[in-house]
């Protein structure tokens, strides 16, 4: 992703000279952080509920109800 150009899809703290100084670093670290969460934790659905996979309203294909999971540590 280009943060400095006229791409306004992602503006965490503004654009230009006063833009976020850590945006490019955050994009690099996101993959490793997500991988560590998946590898080091088990995930339990809130209160043992069933997952509702019905699509929500609109064109974005989001879920009708948010999926809430709690991490369970299983590695040292």
What can you see in these coordinates?
It is a single chain. This protein has 76 residues and is an alpha+beta fold. It has one domain. The protein contains one helix and two strands. The protein has one helix at residues 23-40, and strands at residues 41-45, 69-73. The chain has a two-stranded antiparallel ribbon. The chain is flat and about 45 Å long. The mean pLDDT is 76.
The tally of helices reads 1
How far apart are the termini? 35 Å
Uncertain stretches: none
Helix content: 10-25%
Structural class estimated from helices and strands? alpha+beta
Report strand order across the widest sheet: 1-2
Q: Strand-residue fraction?
A: 5-15%
Counting DSSP E segments of at least 2 residues, the number of strands comes to 2
Mean pLDDT: 76
Shape: flat
Number of domains: 1
Order of helices and strands: HEE
Radius of gyration: 18 Å
Largest sheet: 2 strands, antiparallel
């Amino acid at each position: 992703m280009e943060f400095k150009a006229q791409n306004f899809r992602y503006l965490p703290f503004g654009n230009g000279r006063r833009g976020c100084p850590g945006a490019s670093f955050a994009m690099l670290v996101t993959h490793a952080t997500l991988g560590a969460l998946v590898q080091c934790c088990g995930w339990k659905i809130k209160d043992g509920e069933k997952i509702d996979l019905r699509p929500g309203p609109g064109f974005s294909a989001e879920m009708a109800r948010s999926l809430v999971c709690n991490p369970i540590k299983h590695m040292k």
